[in-house]
Structure formats: structure tokens, C-alpha cells
């Protein structure tokens, strides 16, 4: 049943039609699960599943809970298909740290921190200034 369902492709708009308590589908990692029969038994409660269904994509909410491996293996029995044209975040973005929840503009992205440049130039400038002062005091000021 699960294998047969996994072959079905759904448009997000089609999944959105199944967001009631009598017919509740959730999308997790591009896969579509019919959790209607699981609503009452879900240890996290009926409401969270219903809310996740209405939100369109339950992946983030599902991951935030940190479901156990036994919860994850249960999912297969509710699988009805996949989202059409779904691209996993790690492929759609060039950086692979995105998928583990790093904010898009974090450390190793974008231009180098301007402070690094200043940190390098400022000591050089101070050194140049010190040499100029030494030169002036030793050779020029003494001469007068
Ligand atoms: C087919 C999909 C899902 C299955 C099979 C499932 C299964 C389970 C299971 C077995 C647990 C008990 C704890 C564990 O073993 O991790 C659980 C807890 C929970 N689940 Fe789900 N879940 C699903 C989807 C979701 C979604 C979409 C949400 C969205 C927010 C959610 C929220 C929660 C919460 C809040 C708990 C309670 C955690 C706690 O009390 O510590 N679940 N789920």
C-alpha cells in the first residue's frame, strides 16, 4: 500500500484540499502523508497535525519536535505520495549548511568581514607612523 502510494504525485494545491479533521494530509520533506486515521492516536495531539496540514509544509514543525526513529518508521504506513517537482533544500541551495538550519547569511557566506581588512591595515599604518616619527626625530628635528 505504501509503495503503491509513493508513486503518486500531487500538486501542492491538491494537497491543500485535504486539510480538515475528516481528511488530513501533511507534507514532510516533499512526501505526502494521509494522517486522518492517525489524528486521534498522535502522541503530539490532533491539533498540531491539523495545523501542520493547513500550513502547507509540515517539515520544519516535524523536525523541530525531534521525532524518534520509531515515529519516523511509522510514517511509511501513512504515505500516499510525493509533491510534484519537489526539490530538497540541500539541492536547491548551493550551501549544504542551510538544511541543518543555519541562517542563510551566516559566517561562511558573502564577502569577507570588513573588520578583517581593518585589523590588517591599521597595525601597518601605525607602524608606518612610528617609523616616520622616529625618522623625523632622529634625522630632521635633530638637525635644527
Ligand atoms: C506522519 C507524521 C507523523 C507521525 C507518524 C508522528 C508520530 C509521532 C510519535 C510516535 C510521537 C511520540 C514521540 C516520538 O516517538 O517521537 C510524536 C510526538 C509528537 N509529534 Fe508527531 N508525528 C507526525 C507528524 C507530526 C507533525 C507534522 C507535527 C507538527 C508539529 C508533530 C508534532 C508532534 C509533537 C508536538 C509531539 C509531542 C512531542 C513531545 O511530547 O515531546 N508530529 N509524533
Overview of the structural elements:
There is one protein chain. With 144 residues, the protein is of the alpha+beta class. It has two domains: 2-100, Flavocytochrome B2, Chain A, domain 1 (Roll); 111-144. The chain is built from seven helices and five strands; from the N terminus they run H-E-H-E-E-E-H-H-H-E-H-H. It has a five-stranded mixed sheet with strand order 1-5-4-3-2. The chain is rod-shaped. It comes from Eragrostis curvula (weeping love grass). Its main location: membrane. Belongs to the cytochrome b5 family.
* Low-pLDDT regions: none
Helix segment tally? 7
Global geometry:
rod-shaped
**Which range does the strand content fall in?**
5-15%
Mean pLDDT: 84
How many domains in all? 2
Pfam family, one: Cyt-b5
Protein name: Cytochrome b5 heme-binding domain-containing protein
GO molecular function: heme binding; metal ion binding
Family: Belongs to the cytochrome b5 family.
Keywords:
alpha+beta, binds protoporphyrin IX containing FE, 7 helices, rod-shaped, 2 domains, metal-binding, Cytochrome b5 heme-binding domain-containing protein, Cyt_B5-like_heme/steroid_sf, iron, Cyt_B5_heme-BS, 5 strands
Short structural summary:
The protein contains seven helices and five strands; from the N terminus they run αβαβββαααβαα. With 144 residues, the chain is an alpha+beta fold.
How is this fold's topology laid out?
Blueprint: H1 2-6, E1 9-10, H2 12-15, E2 19-20, E3 23-28, E4 31-34, H3 46-54, H4 59-65, H5 69-75, E5 79-83, H6 89-92, H7 114-140
Parallel strand pairs: 1-5
Antiparallel strand pairs: 2-3, 3-4, 4-5
The chain binds protoporphyrin IX containing FE (HEM).
The site of protoporphyrin IX containing FE has 20 residues, from α3, α4 and α5.
